[in-house]
Write a structure and sequence with these properties.
This protein has 64 residues and is of the alpha+beta class. It is built from three helices and two strands. The protein has one domain. A hairpin with a 7-residue loop joins strand 1 and strand 2.
């Protein structure tokens, strides 16, 4: 979580798919689009996902 804070992210919720519990959606509030995009492209995120057992590339959506 400290890495998320460094990038200005605040977790708003974690949700699992009703039909497939392996489908996970995490909602964040971000201080700026530039910072959240930097987080999405960071090696920190890639390493954390690998350590958590994430398989495949995640879909990352930016909304306003």
């Amino acid at each position: 979580m400290p890495t998320r804070q460094e990038y200005g992210l605040k977790e708003l919720g974690v949700h699992r798919g009703a039909d497939n519990s392996n489908d996970i959606t995490i909602v964040f509030e971000a201080q700026s689009l530039e910072r959240v995009m930097a987080f999405a492209e960071s090696s920190d995120l890639k390493e954390a996902m690998m350590a958590a057992g994430v398989q495949g590339m995640p879909d990352i959506w930016f909304t306003d």
